[in-house]
Write a structure and sequence with these properties.
- Strand 9 and strand 10 form a beta hairpin.
- The chain is built from 17 helices and 10 strands.
- Helix 1 packs across helix 16, helix 4 packs across helix 16 (414-446) and helix 7 (130-145) runs antiparallel to helix 14.
- Mean pLDDT is 89; it is low at 9-16 and 457-462.
- It is 46% helix and 12% strand.
- It has a domain at 199-297 and 309-351.
Length: 462
């Protein structure tokens, strides 16, 4: 039996009712975190919670705020760490789980040699304790690769991740893409194959050069025509994009649809797919871009003073975090931040060169024996290296948060650090497994909106 499951069972067997109150706390956290979406479209929140309840990895993706607050809560039974408690605050990725890493192909890069693999989602970037990033990444990695029959995948992956992080944050070279192991090289091969055939553009557009519409399916996925309000919002957002210094000349919006059922944490967010070109007839200059609403991230543990002034507004945070944490500013040629009536939107490339890992595909590969512990360790080494390099580049919040604080703390103690990260990943992952089960129980008992429909109906909000 795998290590996370064993730990979760142990937690469940300790005492007569060790989870007394935990289910209520989980429900209250979700209701609080998703209130912005509940006020707008409760049906999308119900879909999000159903997705979270069905899979531990998806639960982890949708519960960043809950997890961060749980770490910050006093708890007598929570273990103390030495190296992971080194108090240095800096700009962090915020949510560096494996599915938030992927390929990039800048406009001038050769697909054969210029493909990059970096963190591709900085929506949660903010100032916090560096170790929160380390723990979040380790937990996500463990949940992704802890699949039968690979009994050692999680331990070997997390150990390699921690050691590669320590090396990169201390100034060591990042692990090259071709040394990232079978999972990443397979993703890169798929990207290059899709680039050769314009796979995404062909799949999502018709022969007449308009975006494909997909009716909403049974799990809430679809690409639908815009409402009048959405059409007005898209027009306003596109005018902003066209006016930016980085927009291509003669930019035109050919078509737009609303995308539903993508992501987990951001599943209820407004998400558009645009088909654009630069004025030429035909398909030669057509491109796809994604435009997605971004909300402020949760407060991360370890911040010693408010950080409201670190970024002028949410749109500047979206752009500034990428400039500060990415190795090159041109990784995504479409990256931009837009706003509309208090909503912030991020523009991203949606082409074949921009693809990410999928935990379901990884699980299938491990279950079928195509991926072994050595491949999981290679993935961990790749992710740890990139997170460590990002932290090396990241600005600190104060004079005691310089780039050498973490390397000094880890110097000569990498074995101890790897042990702490492995232990933290085991504990955090077991809690996710347990909390996912509690959410499933609560949904069965209280309905798809965890009783919130009754509350809001009483207030006349819905």
């Amino acid at each position: 039996m795998r290590w996370i499951v064993v730990s979760a069972i142990a937690m469940g067997c300790a005492g007569s009712n060790p989870d007394a109150g935990r289910e209520a706390w989980v429900v209250s956290q979700l209701l609080s975190d998703d209130k912005v979406w509940l006020d707008r479209d409760p049906s999308l929140v119900a879909t999000k919670w159903a997705v979270m309840a069905a899979d531990p990895y998806d639960f982890m993706r949708g519960s960043l705020g809950m997890w961060a607050r749980d770490l910050a809560r006093p708890a007598a039974d929570r273990p103390r760490f030495d190296l992971l408690d080194v108090p240095t605050v800096r700009l962090v990725v915020g949510d560096p789980h494996p599915e938030n890493f992927g390929t990039f192909l800048s406009a001038s890069a050769d697909p054969a040699t210029g493909l990059a693999f970096e963190v591709n989602d900085l929506d949660a970037a903010s100032y916090g304790t560096w170790s929160v990033d380390v723990r979040r990444g380790a937990m996500g990695l463990a949940l992704m690769v802890d699949v039968a029959p690979c009994a050692s995948c999680a331990t070997e992956a997390v150990d390699a991740y921690a050691r590669a992080y320590a090396d990169a944050v201390s100034g060591g070279a990042e692990v090259e893409l071709d040394r990232c192991g079978a999972l990443v090289t397979s993703l890169a091969a798929s990207v290059r194959e899709d680039l050769a055939s314009d796979h995404t553009l062909t799949k999502d557009t018709t022969a007449e050069g308009v975006l494909v519409r997909e009716p909403m399916d049974e799990v809430g996925k679809g690409m639908l025509d815009l409402t009048d309000d959405e059409r007005g919002q898209v027009s306003h957002l596109f005018d902003q994009l066209a006016a930016t210094d980085t927009a291509p000349p003669n930019l035109r919006l050919l078509d737009a649809v609303r995308r539903f059922g993508r992501g987990v944490a951001s599943l209820p967010a407004v998400r558009y797919l645009w088909l654009v070109d630069q004025g030429q007839d035909g398909l030669a200059d057509d491109e796809l871009v994604q435009v997605r609403e971004v909300v402020d991230p949760p407060q991360l543990p370890g911040v010693i003073r408010p950080t409201d002034g670190e970024f002028a507004d949410p749109t500047s945070r979206v752009q500034a975090a990428s400039a500060l944490l990415w190795p090159r500013a041109d990784l995504d040629p479409w990256l931009a931040a837009l706003s509309d009536d208090g909503q912030t939107f991020k523009v991203q490339a949606f082409g074949d060169g921009f693809q990410g890992l999928d935990h379901a595909d990884v699980a299938s590969a491990i279950a079928e024996g195509d991926v072994a512990a050595v491949d999981a360790a290679d993935l961990g080494r790749c992710l740890g290296s990139r997170l460590g390099a990002a932290h090396r580049r990241a600005p600190g919040l104060g004079p005691l948060d310089g780039p050498d604080v973490i390397p000094r703390a880890l110097a000569g103690r990498v074995d101890a650090f790897a042990g702490e990260v492995t232990r933290a990943a085991e504990l955090d992952s077991a809690q996710v497994v347990s909390d996912r089960a509690l959410l499933a129980t609560a949904l069965d008992a209280d309905g798809p909106l965890l009783g919130a429909d009754d509350v809001f109906a009483g207030e006349g909000a819905w």
